[in-house]
Design brief:
8 strands; alpha+beta; about 15% helix; about 130 residues; flat; 2,3-Dihydroxybiphenyl 1,2-Dioxygenase, domain 1
């Protein structure tokens, strides 16, 4: 089974997320919104298939990365999230919540051995 298919996002805590967005827009030219920026790309195996990776600063006091105490979280794009979660459970991986489904995909959060938060995302249509 194919597991990670790409990088879905890079999220990090900032003392002032809006100021961080502005800095990256001004100095590095990122086309930011209040949610950061979205880098669009095409799948190497199927160039007709569009995909994206999100870069986004979060408020310093966000609870979204918990139970991790780290200042960042990586989001990985995956295929067949339900099957992957079952494999991870069998392997003893810490899964911190239940799979949630939205219009844009399914999500679940896990921790790696050093307590880093990892968000797994199965985009809709994959």
């Amino acid at each position: 089974m194919k597991k990670v298919t790409g990088l879905g996002g890079i999220f990090f805590k900032a003392k002032d997320a809006a100021a961080m967005n502005d800095w990256y827009a001004q100095h590095l030219g990122l086309p930011v919104s209040q949610y950061g920026t979205v880098f669009e790309w095409r799948d190497a195996e199927d160039p007709e298939k569009k995909a994206s990776t999100v870069w986004s600063p979060f408020a310093e006091d966000t609870k979204y990365f918990e139970p991790s105490t780290k200042d960042f979280m990586i989001n990985y794009r995956v295929e067949n999230l339900e099957a992957l979660v079952e494999e991870l459970k069998t392997a003893g991986v810490t899964i911190t919540d239940e799979i949630k489904t939205y219009d844009y995909g399914k999500f679940v959060h896990i921790l790696d051995p050093e307590g880093n938060a990892i968000e797994l995302w199965e985009p809709m249509g994959e």
